[in-house]
Amino acid sequence: MHNIAAFQNAFRCKAVYLGAEALFAPRLIGQIGDALVAVVSTDLGGEKCVELLRLRLERMLARPVAKVFIDKYRSEVRVVGDIFAVDVKDRIAILIDDLIAGGGAVARTAGQRGSW
User: Fold this and answer.
1) Continuous H helices in 42-114
2) Is it the case that residue 67 has pLDDT exceeding 70?
3) Helix axis angle, 47-61 relative to 21-32, nearest 10°?
4) Distance of CA 76 to the CA centre of its chain
5) Closest to 114 measured CA to CA, from 81, 96, 78, 88
6) Domains along the sequence of the chain with CATH
7) Mean pLDDT of the 18-43 span
8) CB-CB contact of 87 with 45 (8 Å)
């Protein structure tokens, strides 16, 4: 969910947000090792999810973890946009997207890796 508060307010019964960061972070730690790392959102809407994972990784690694956003907007039938912030040269980039239907946003983000 882009907005955890909206999720919590969407139901008339008790609903618990099960954030994936608690599941993914321990697994990622073993693969990151001593390398520098950046958590990458395929669009600005995923900022909250990326921030939760970034904070958890920072706590577990006891060192800074960068955060990257990709600007994304639709122009006719194409999705376009550029890097929004942060240089990730020499970092492991962990791409996060909250919903993957066709994989276009993730592929586009991964394809821009060389320009980061």
Assistant:
1) 47-61, 104-111
2) yes
3) 50
4) 25
5) 88
6) 20-115 (3.40.50.2020)
7) 87
8) no
